[in-house]
């Protein structure tokens, strides 16, 4: 079986298996059913030999998780943050939560995956001019965590990790050839999956669509400093801002009631009000969805995916929102580009997909053939914990297997 | 050497070489320099054993070329057409020109590549709802030419073929990992190259950006029936239309003179007038370039290429146009996405790149491992000339080696 699956000779595999066994990475799981000859020996990954940490830094929330070597998340901690407070408080908190999660577990941390809500140069793990993360530009997240936990660290854009988490949890999405994963919430971003692999582009920024200019953007100033960005017009903050206007102008009785009581309007309130039949809230939600759908139509024409997955806050939206997005895509995208397109909603909650993806990123990298080669002799991936070593083993611009 | 390059065992290669030799596909080219042992035998492709035809159908021009098996174009014919006249007159003319080119050559036609100015379902070779090709929707170009020339035929979008021609002719572009090739002329389209391979998406329509909605599109009606398409605002026809307005309103003395004499304004006239210092023409050209650049900024943010090649009519534009496009991209795209981005102009004239790409498409496909396997036994690829056979051997959605 292994011989067929791996497509290598029997002796090469036997040697590899024995190396992995002496490193304690795989172990025997008894004998399998014989197909005539000698009963085959079954092997399994020694899942509890090491731990993987996942750190998912979102704009207003931090999730840290600990997983075994198969990527099964064992426990998580979640806490509200403001990413704009900068790396020091956010990473200190992440370190504390990770310490709690590792706690009395005896297995060592073998790999750490980190997601941040901004563009990351994947080769170096550095955030580069991230629009909503003041103070994080080129901050050495990887070096800091690698030194703290004596384990190799990989950093990526949070949307890439959500897509990875989704693909690993949804067998259907995992096998679709060309997937566009779109996270729409406070931030808007996309991840590109090609023949089952995350596509990161030349510098790791592929999919960063939150700040592209959109037709209906007009002169709305975005927090990034540009005019008419997608996020400024169709993101969660825009929905809250426009919802507040509807409340203050009393066009929306439902939102006016929320504002009077809570003194703030959240995107969720607009969705709730629309759901309850408030007409102004419904119209606003409809318009925002159509604006997002218009940009997605451009991306569908350009990339021609066969599956579009909507994740983030929008995944909690009701049928009405999705219908508006679908309608905009089918109306504006090229007929051939939508001929076989499926548009679906993420099956995982945002917090879960991000941290799951972070753990899988770390495991994919630490067990990549090149990295495995590097640390097998030392017996443990802590030998990889110098960032220079880690970096040079990673091809800079090639998509990696997910 | 072959053993190292191909990464297969010596005996497998020896068998393959002998198969190819008996098919007359490769021939001996004497002995190479010895590196100690027996002098190696040199092999070369028997370039003149067969012919490849390239048919490049543009909106207003048809180019047909004949090439040897290495892809070297031996001769071409070029003629003005209107693609909107439909498949019958255009393909009849293509067949006649191909007959002339094949003429008294004795080698058989082994493969035909065809480019059309619209979306093509690559798997079936059918144009699908092509916006500027009335009468061509699902027209069986492949079956018609395959029956006429008794050779296998592959059909693709013309921009993909121009990108392929460019990559094969420009070693620099050929090795860049992530290339976005943009053809801007009467039509606007893009081709996506990923790790040296054309990326066609799920249905073959990837890169079709001519009819995406753009921020400044307003209520301009496109020939495709939608509002505010990129092509309707920043394509060559838009340039001519707006140039005519400048002429009629006498805002542009240079264009008014052209209109008085020639009774029409071509995109080229606007560029010429701008070059000669006509201020209105210069402003128009600047604005059109900035609009195109704005859409390219979105695509650069999304795809994060390391090389953007501008081809088509715009490649003949002077520095001023390119500066405006570059400026728009650097201003709007994410800083990380443009960090290592090179923006260059196509090195091949449009007519040459299209037909070169068509020939290379045909040769890539006919010599793909799967197809080679199919026809080697019969001794000639004419055995592939039934479209059903051809189609099923081609994976529908995977990018192919270029």
TrEMBL record, chains A, B:
The highest taxon in the source lineage is Bacteria
Gene3D superfamilies, sorted: 3.30.420.40
Which chain regions cross the lipid bilayer? Answer: none
What InterPro entries does the database record attribute to this sequence? ATPase_NBD (IPR043129), ROK (IPR000600)
Membership in a protein family:
Belongs to the ROK (NagC/XylR) family.
What's the protein called, per UniProt?
Answer: ROK family protein
Protein source organism = Actinoplanes aureus
């Amino acid at each position: 079986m292994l011989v067929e699956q791996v497509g290598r000779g029997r002796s090469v595999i036997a040697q590899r298996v024995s190396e992995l066994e002496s490193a304690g990475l795989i172990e025997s799981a008894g004998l399998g059913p014989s197909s005539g000859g000698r009963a085959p020996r079954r092997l399994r990954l020694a899942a509890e030999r090491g731990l993987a940490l996942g750190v998912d830094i979102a704009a207003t929330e931090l999730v840290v998780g600990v997983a075994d070597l198969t990527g099964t998340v064992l426990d998580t901690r979640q806490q509200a943050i403001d990413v704009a407070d900068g790396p020091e408080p956010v990473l200190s908190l992440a370190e504390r939560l990770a310490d709690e999660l590792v706690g009395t577990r005896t297995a060592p941390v073998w790999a750490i995956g980190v997601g941040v809500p901004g563009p990351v140069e994947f080769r170096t793990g550095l955030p580069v001019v991230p629009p909503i993360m003041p103070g994080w530009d080129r901050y050495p997240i990887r070096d800091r965590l690698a030194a703290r936990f004596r384990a190799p660290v990989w950093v990526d854009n949070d949307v890439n990790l959500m897509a990875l988490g989704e693909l690993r949890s949804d067998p259907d999405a995992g096998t679709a050839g060309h997937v566009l994963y779109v996270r729409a919430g406070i931030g808007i971003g996309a991840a590109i999956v090609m023949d089952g692999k995350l596509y990161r582009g030349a510098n790791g920024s592929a999919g960063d669509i939150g700040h592209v200019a959109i037709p209906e953007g007009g002169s709305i100033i975005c927090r990034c400093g540009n005019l008419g960005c997608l996020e400024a017009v169709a993101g969660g903050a825009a929905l809250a801002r426009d919802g507040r206007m509807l409340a203050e102008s009393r066009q929306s009785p439902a939102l006016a009631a929320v504002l009077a009581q809570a003194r703030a309007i959240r995107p969720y309130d607009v969705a709730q009000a629309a759901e309850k039949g408030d007409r102004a809230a419904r119209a606003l939600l409809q318009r925002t969805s159509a604006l997002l759908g218009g940009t997605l139509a451009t991306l569908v024409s350009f990339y021609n995916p066969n599956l579009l997955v909507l994740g983030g806050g929008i995944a909690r939206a009701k049928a009405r929102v999705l219908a508006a997005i679908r309608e905009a895509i089918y109306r504006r995208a090229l007929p051939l580009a939508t001929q076989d397109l499926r548009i679906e909603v993420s099956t995982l909650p945002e917090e879960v997909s991000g941290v799951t993806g972070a753990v899988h990123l770390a495991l994919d990298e630490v067990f990549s053939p090149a990295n495995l080669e590097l640390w097998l002799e030392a017996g443990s991936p802590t030998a990889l914990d110098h960032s220079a070593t880690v970096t040079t083993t990673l091809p800079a611009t090639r998509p990696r297997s997910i």
